[in-house]
Design brief:
The chain is mainly α. The protein has a domain of about 80 residues. Helix 2 crosses helix 4.
Length: about 120
């Protein structure tokens, strides 16, 4: 499997984070590709700091607003985990809060024995 390359100011940290996740038995390849998308965003925004802010997350989320809720949740989950991990080393770095699970409302259909 080809390794995912990270090139932003947080590239080394992202590599360490992915290796940590892989050390627990997961290949973490799909998740690393999602993290790479954020890495590219940091580059496009010329983000040169080791500290993440709510603003940089908001600008990134605005670029992926078109994806489905499930896909957005995948991106968010990876970034929430990465931001919490990074905050252990960069104490001023913003930590995304855990996202509440969105439970789709289901319409209750009542079927009558006479319905066919």
């Amino acid at each position: 499997m080809k390794p995912v390359n990270f090139n932003s100011s947080l590239g080394k940290e992202m590599v360490h984070f992915v290796k940590l996740k892989q050390s627990s038995g997961s290949d973490y390849f799909s998740q690393a590709k999602l993290l790479r998308s954020f890495d590219r965003h940091l580059i496009s925004q010329k983000h040169n700091s080791k500290v993440l802010t709510m603003t940089i997350f908001q600008s990134y989320f605005n670029t992926i607003i078109h994806v489905s809720n499930r896909v957005f949740s995948n991106y968010y989950c990876i970034l929430q985990q990465f931001s919490a991990w990074l905050n252990q080393y960069e104490h001023n770095s913003y930590v995304l809060q855990k996202r509440q699970a969105v439970v789709p409302t289901q319409e209750l259909l009542i079927f009558s024995p006479l319905m066919k």
